[in-house]
Amino acid sequence: MRKLQFRGKSKLFELVGEKIISITAFAALISVFLIFLFIFKESIPIFTDSEIKQEASVDKMLFKQEYYEGRQPRFSWQPNSDVPKYSILPLFIGSFKAALIAMLFAVPLAVGAAIFSAEFASRRLREFVKPIIELLAGIPSVVLGFFSLIVLATFLQDVFGFTFRLNAINAGIVLGLAVIPIVFTMAEDAMTSVPGSLRDAALALGANRWQVSLTVVLPAALPGIAAGITLGFGRAIGETMIVLMASGNAAIISGSFVDSIRTISATIAAELAEVVFGGAHYSVLFFLGTLLFILTFVLNWIGDYATNALKLKYQGRVK
Amino acid sequence: MTGIQLSPVKESSPRHNIHESFGRKSSGRIPAGLTATAVIIIAMMLFIILGNIVLNGVGVIDWKFLSHPPENGMEGGGIFPAIFGTVALVLLMTIAVVPVGVLTAIYLHEYTSPHSKVTRLIRMAINNLAGVPSIVFGLFGLGFFIGFVGNGIDTLFYADEGPVWGQPAIIWASLTLSVLTLPVVIVATEEALRTIPREIKDASLALGATKLQTIIKVVIPNSLPGILTGAILAISRGAGEVAPIMFTGAAYYLPYLPQKLNDQFMELGYHIYVMATQSPDIEATKPILYGTVLVLLLLTFMLNFSAIIIRSKMRSKNAH
């Protein structure tokens, strides 16, 4: 009897424990859902509130231009002027400009370093490459932003004579440093997960090491490298502190890489603390947050898809 | 059979041309050098950044700097309140995130098949959570924790007072960070769970222990190094994040240390941001600024370094 009782108790214990574990496991899923829900919720007035719609409807944020006498009409983001202007185009262009420079700078370096580490480096050299990337990944973005603002901006201006000390190039380079670890890790993972039999086959056919890398390993690992670039781009678009500190924060539409820029993320960070709770400006900032969330969500999904495709292709290998 | 006839293919193949142009002896030496250059450039930039910060910051750090509050509008004194706030922030965050992260990892690894729909959905959520921009977490913390939870508590229990919980506070900042670092803890714990041999779990089950008993007495103790690694990496990540805490609790300057969960606090990263961008006299602030950056760097590097050591020990133990 006592034994039975014990079993009954332990069964209840078992059941409760399992329920707690399985409910907790949904925390991540619920978080993602809540994040979207609560950010989107605050931006709903843009679509419903007639007063706010007069200042900032989706239509106005995208297409409204300001006309001044004797000047070209332009899209402007001036939320604090007497007549607030909420054109989000300059912010989008700013974000993409910074991310583009970051990728142009980071991808060749990160993929090059990944090829070196996966294909050419001896074991001892690899033990030297990995900690470098780990150290770089460990630098907080506010420290990178600080370096860009205090040291790099002055250096670049002295050397190249830029009109604006804080500009897209300056922010983009340091943003690239934040992206390198992501692209490197994904690319290196992809290359080392190419089955050895493929390499051996190519070597047996008489190819040399570089040919094996270029014509066998790289094409096979391409989906993984593409995934790394996609995720890196997502990080570059969403990164806040670096662009907030180093980009100059001027909402200008221009094709030049040496003009100041204002990104979506930096705009939210700089302006949210001073807005009226529930006003048009407040809703627009949350709307920008929603767009940022959706954008990175899609980029992540694409990256995930590519990684999984690669894993499926070489599933014979147990990780 | 045709596939084995190599020579005609070789004749016309573009690969053959690459082969020729490098020649057999120097095969791949030039491209290997090119990729090595990428590594050298990255290493040099890292060296310049770290070197600049260490050289300019090391002279500033002394006991007074670490133990005193700022003076003269941030141009003198120390950074003790910011260190205190950062430590309190990440401790609260750890308390919130580690149990949730560990239980999620256990559920994914022990309770469901890796190919079930639920697992795939949760995994997708974890991956997405890891990719959400940190500023979006800041918006979330403001909208959900302060606006919804905090205001909700206020209307229920403190209806006739001013905002008690519905305002920026250390508890909301740390909860926001715990959502941000959840993927870090889950991934590290899962890695540890994967290294536990099946035989140990089977032995425990064969002796009559239930699944939950096995998890509590065998699985969790054996994955402790992994859980610790996850916690350390989460702390290192959380200590460096600024964007999520800007609106959820960090303050520019406070004359007192946070005492209660609903107090605001100073934080190292935010302190750096404010000093670097809003100082009226940047030259006068620079030494303190460099000192603060160095302290934050040392903190995150020491954490990362210990995580690497624990992890490599865990791996070599399991390799035998």
* Major sheet of chain B: 2 strands, antiparallel
Structural class of chain A: mainly alpha
Cross-sheet strand order for the largest sheet of chain A: 1-2
Number of helices of chain B: 13
* CATH topology-level name of the largest domain in chain B: MetI-like fold
Compact overview of the structure:
Chain A is mainly alpha-helical and 319 residues long. Helices cover 74% and strands 1% of the residues of chain A.
What does this structure look like?
- The complex is a heterodimer of chains A (319) and B (320).
- In chain A, a hairpin with a 6-residue loop joins strand 1 and strand 2.
- Chain A has one domain (77-313): MetI-like (MetI-like fold, Orthogonal Bundle), CATH 1.10.3720.
- By secondary structure, chain A is an all-alpha fold.
- Helix content of chain A is 74%, strand content 1%.
- In chain B, helix 9 (198-206) packs antiparallel against helix 10 (211-222) and helix 11 (224-240) packs antiparallel against helix 13.
- A two-stranded antiparallel sheet of chain B has the order 1-2.
- Chain B is built from 13 helices and two strands.
- Chain B has two domains: 26-57; 62-319, MetI-like (MetI-like fold).
- By secondary structure, chain B is mostly helical.
- Helices cover 73% and strands 1% of the residues of chain B.
- The interface between A and B is large, with 92 and 91 residues.
Tags for this entry?
heterodimer; A: 319 residues; mainly alpha; MetI-like fold; two-stranded antiparallel ribbon; 14 helices; B: 320 residues; 13 helices; 1% strand
Tell me the layout of helices and strands:
The complex is a heterodimer of chains A (319) and B (320).
Chain A: H1 2-24, H2 27-43, H3 45-48, H4 50-55, H5 58-63, E1 77-78, E2 85-86, H6 89-120, H7 123-138, H8 141-160, H9 168-192, H10 196-204, H11 209-238, H12 241-246, H13 264-271, H14 280-313
Antiparallel strand pairs in A: 1-2
Chain B: H1 6-12, H2 14-22, H3 29-57, H4 63-67, E1 70-71, E2 76-77, H5 80-111, H6 117-131, H7 134-157, H8 170-195, H9 198-206, H10 211-222, H11 224-240, H12 268-278, H13 282-319
Helix pairs in contact in B: 3-13, 5-8, 5-11, 6-8, 7-8, 8-11, 9-10, 11-13, 12-13
